Amino acid sequence: MTTTDTHGTPHSGSAAQHHVSLAETATAHNYQPLPVVLASGEGAWVTDVDGRRYLDCLAGYSALNFGHAHPRLTAAAQEQLSRLTLTSRAFHNDRLGPFCRDLAELASMDLVLPMNTGAEAVETAIKVARKWGYERKGVAPDRATVIVADGNFHGRTTTIVSFSSDPVARDGFGPFTPGFRTVPYGDSAALEAAVDENTVAVLLEPIQGEAGVLIPPPGYLKAVRDVCTRENVLFIADEIQSGLGRTGTTFACDADGVTPDVHVLGKALGGGIVPVSAVVSRHDVLDVIRPGSHGSTFGGNPLAAAVGHAVVELLRSGEYQARAAALGERLRGRLDGLIGRGAVAVRSRGLWAGIDLDPALMTGREACLRLLDRGVLAKDTHGSTIRLAPPLTIEADQLDWMCDQLSDVLTQEGS
Ligand SMILES: *Cc1c(COP(=O)(O)O)cnc(C)c1O
Fold first, then answer.
1. Which is the closest atom of ligand 1 to the Cα of 239?
2. Domain residue spans in the chain?
3. Which of the four, 96, 97, 140, 342, has the lowest number of CB atoms within 10 Å?
């Protein structure tokens, strides 16, 4: 152990300590990072400023599904970087069309509306759904409502936090955007009861990531699909974290045989290199957007499109989905063994897991600090839950090693 003591505090005078102090004095405190200062990364591994290596089991909250510096992705970025990076959408570029064609095909949809961050894509989907409601469904002006789930996480903009149920995300940021109705997650009867003539969309995460990898009961997504079809309501699946191979299928909805009307994508779409997000849907939905009604200076820029296209190419092979499925089985077997041995509940799908720790044992953050000391990067959520989302490129023996570290942390008190 070179940079941290057992509670993850960098030794004074170390390079890490210097960077932590600098960040603390010069950045707004909107995060509370673990005390590790990363300097490089390759595959599933990252190295800190003092040369210590860690297995990255957060993978940028799934933005790094293909690991750090994936050769195909860095090559695509580097090639594009020296050719053309930004045109604005005032002009065409030769990267956007091929990217959007192949992404639409991957999602079995018609059209792509490219944006940058996940929150922007969610905002875009909400705008599209409202406009669709007025123009296609005949909802009275300014009456459109969108049904969302309790415990959701869809980003940080003013409108999106308006329908968050997390007080920390909301408090102090009002006045809020009206037009949202919250129902319990996983309860299709409650959702159906909330639909009325003004409902234009249901916006859901097929698996709630930030909430702790909450998987809805079997049949839920299918029931939501049926309600939406019957009531002429758009089903918007926020697959920003769950999509693009993470759960063992291209989209998490695939496992339930469900096709939403709108896919919202982000995170891994940018290969961990640049922010790339997208709203992917059919003509009858996205055709409500006309020149001037929506846009973004950077959305669909050639660098983003080149990287996004390389991501789509990686996913077209099915290799990463298969890896996530197979390694996910292995992970689940190991995590199930932790129940009653420090963990009270475990949820996982593919290479994505939420582990509820026994709160009497330690907090999620304490567990993550101890994992850090053992060379594993993971992130806590909601006090006593640890979220694991290693790159889909992780090897089986690395995954086993990570599980060994977790098991040791939970069973060796005060380790
Ligand atoms: C991360 C995330 C977002 C927001 O994406 P940003 O790129 O951080 O704006 C939205 N929805 C879900 C499900 C996410 O996990």
1. 13
2. 6-69+319-410, 71-316
3. 140
Res 14: pLDDT = 83
Q: 277 C-alpha vs ligand 1 centroid, how far in Å?
A: 10
Closest CA to 226 of 254, 264, 261: 261
| The pLDDT of residue 70 is above 60 | yes
User: Would you state the pLDDT for residue 15?
Assistant: 86
Considering the four listed CATH numbers 3.90.1150.10, 3.90.1720.10, 2.30.33.40, 3.30.230.10, the one that applies to the domain covering 6-69+319-410 is: 3.90.1150.10
Has residue 1 got a pLDDT over 90? Answer: no
Active site residue 163: no
Q: Is 256 an active-site residue?
A: no
- Condensed to tens digits (0 to 9), the pLDDT of residues 233-292 reads 999 999 999 999 999 999 999 999 999 999 999 999 999 999 999 999 999 999 999 999
Q: Which residues contact ligand 1 via a Cβ below 6 A? A: 61, 117-119, 122, 153-155, 205, 209-210, 238, 240-241, 266-267
Residues 6+ apart with CB under 8 A from 195: 147, 202, 227, 231, 233
The catalytic residue among 66, 153, 235, 251 is 153
CA-nearest residue for atom 15, ligand 1, is 241
For 71-316, CATH number out of 3.30.450.40, 3.30.1380.10, 3.40.640.10, 3.40.50.2300 equals 3.40.640.10
Q: Which whole number is the average pLDDT over 47-55?
A: 97
Reading across the β-sheet that carries 343-348, which strands appear in turn? 343-348, 353-357, 385-388, 379-381
Q: Which pLDDT score, from 0 to 100, does residue 412 have?
A: 82
pLDDT at 315 over 90: yes
Cα 180 to ligand 1 centre (Å): 18
Cα dihedral sign for 322, 325, 326, 331?
Answer: positive
Residue nearest atom 11 in ligand 1 by C-alpha distance? 154
Instruction: Give phi and psi for 112, each to the nearest 5.
Output: -125, 135
300-327 mean pLDDT: 98
Q: Ligand 1 atom closest to Cα of 160?
A: 10
CB distance 100 to 111 below 8 Å: yes
- The residue count of the chain comes to 415
